[in-house]
Design goal:
mainly alpha
């Protein structure tokens, strides 16, 4: 896909550009339908057992259209994962910004707000959260998950600077490990109410963690 974007001049649409826009809209609708169908089929059957024919049938599309928009079943899965992570990052960002705007300066309380929003996102989208944490993914997806977890840990580290301007690596490891376990428990539980209680209890426990290297004076 080209990285260049052709920005049209302002003004009303002409006969020449209307068909292109219609085609583009139709293509976007097909792509979205394929992703929605893939999500449903993956959640119902798992990645390994999901069939491309089931996905295109549910989307009302063709196998050719699927391979026009995606490289195959694994590409659909990874695209769903990336889009879920984007939504999760936005939830986390909004939660942290909200407590900061309310005057919260304690890094741990900011972390709790963001982590709580992440867990709430897993509860709100339990089907896909369970899909990604279940281990039933394309070859190499476990490496993708580890890379994303490490990236998340690096982002969290920005909240926990030590007095000398460094990063408290030990605290970041503890918090990241705790959240990885929390996400797994919340996503895999069959009882939504119990999952929400578990999320609240986990965040309450995490909130008691203190480290001299990051304690405010």
């Amino acid at each position: 896909m080209s990285s260049e974007i052709d920005v049209p001049s302002a003004g009303p649409a002409t006969e020449a550009d209307t068909p292109a826009r219609t085609t583009s809209d139709r293509g976007a609708a097909t792509r979205n339908a394929l992703l929605a169908a893939a999500r449903d089929v993956f959640c119902e059957a798992g990645f390994a057992q999901a069939a491309v024919t089931d996905i295109v049938a549910k989307a009302g599309a063709s196998v050719g259209s699927l391979y026009h928009h995606f490289n195959g079943k694994a590409d659909l899965y990874l695209t769903l994962f990336e889009e879920f992570q984007v939504r999760q990052q936005e939830r986390t960002r909004e939660a942290i910004n909200a407590v900061r705007e309310a005057g919260e300066t304690d890094p741990m309380r900011q972390f709790i707000a963001g982590a709580g929003a992440y867990l709430n996102g897993c509860l709100a989208e339990r089907g896909v959260a369970r899909l990604f944490i279940s281990g039933d993914g394309p070859p190499g997806f476990d490496r993708v998950m580890r890379q994303r977890l490490n990236k998340w840990a690096r982002r969290n580290a920005a909240l926990f600077h030590t007095a000398d301007g460094g990063v408290d690596e030990a605290l970041v490891v503890v918090l990241t490990g705790a959240m990885a376990g929390a996400v797994s428990e919340v996503s895999l539980s069959d009882d939504e109410e119990a999952s929400r209680r578990m999320a609240d209890e986990i965040m309450a426990i995490v909130g008691t963690i203190r480290n001299p290297g990051t304690e405010q004076t």
